[in-house]
Amino acid sequence: MNKPKVALIQMHVEEDKLRNMVKASDFIRKAAEQNIDIAVLPEMFNCPYKTSNFPVYAEEEGGECYGMLSELARKYQIYLIAGTMPEKDDKGRVFNTCYVFDRKGNKIGKHRKMHLFDIAVEGGQHFKESETLTAGNTVTVFETEFGKMGVAVCYDFRFPELSRLMVEEGAKVLIAPAAFNMTTGPAHWEVMFRSRAIDNQVYTIGTAPARDVDSCYTSYGNSIIVSPWGEVVARLDEKEGLLIETLNLDYVEKVRRELPLLAHRRKDIYKCGKKEE
Question: Mean pLDDT, the chain, as a whole number?
Fold first, then answer.
């Protein structure tokens, strides 16, 4: 049966990068003890979510945190969707980047957040990622023994075109490390993951940092898994925790066969946007 066991890691994020890595490692170890196949970390798991922090915490690909993540995937023989962390390139640009490692610790995916979170909600959240981050431009789908999966980062998931592009490339699971806040989370978190699941007849997974009301940015938490029928399979609350569930990817095919939404699209009339090179 095509049933990967997935662990969502919802952790508090501190100012000390190494302490965050140790905490992530401990959660991954605990998950691995339950024979998981895939672990997913939250957005900015090693860095407090603040624009001024991103250049300070940023590492080049292959840096200390990257090496530790690769080793964790290899040690526990799991796929690791490594949340996100700030990445800098040789031009000094900083990206909000998710690395994906296979069971041998090899990098099999890399997604740089494509849509930067620049919002100003009256009476609510104000944030401007573009102050320090550069947007990526690549649709990210990676291969596993269970089939293809796609990854996006937080605000990316609000754009249905991106999810559809991942599905057109064969993804049956869409994974989004994310850090919704106390303005957008209660309003949109669950409905967004359910919408992307229903629209694309896939499992959707959202993994968030745990809520810390004393932090510079208060995460909504509520890491979630939604089925291709739009049902909430499992969900955490705001506290730190580990969510482990088994997905049935044969169910994706069943839903698509019985309600052939994707096959009924009128491609002769409308087109999904093409990804940039």
Answer: 94
Check: CB of residue 27 under 8 Å from CB of residue 242.
yes
Q: What CATH number is given to the structural domain containing 228?
A: 3.60.110.10
Q: Which of 84, 25, 12 is nearest to 54 (CA)?
A: 84
Nearest Cα neighbor of 139 from 175, 107, 170, 114 is 114
Identify whether 270 is part of a domain.
no
Tokens encoding 4: 């990967």
Nearest to 154 by CA among 93, 215, 107, 223: 223
Q: Where are the beta strands (DSSP E) in 178-236?
A: 203-207, 224-226, 232-235
**Cβ–Cβ contacts within 10 Å for residue 23, how many?**
19
Kindly tell me the number of DSSP H helices and DSSP E strands found in the chain: 6, 15
Catalytic residue ranges: 43, 113, 154
% of residues, the chain, pLDDT over 90:
88
H or E segment at 112? Answer: strand 107-112
Report the domain count for the chain. Answer: 1
- For 42-71, b/e burial (b = at least 16 CB within 10 A) is bbbbbbbbbbebbeebbbeeeeebbebbbe
Sign of CA pseudo-dihedral 152, 198, 241, 108: negative
Which domain, by its residues, includes 70? 5-263
**What's the pTM value of the predicted model, to 2 decimals?**
0.94
Token representation of residue 63: 């840096």
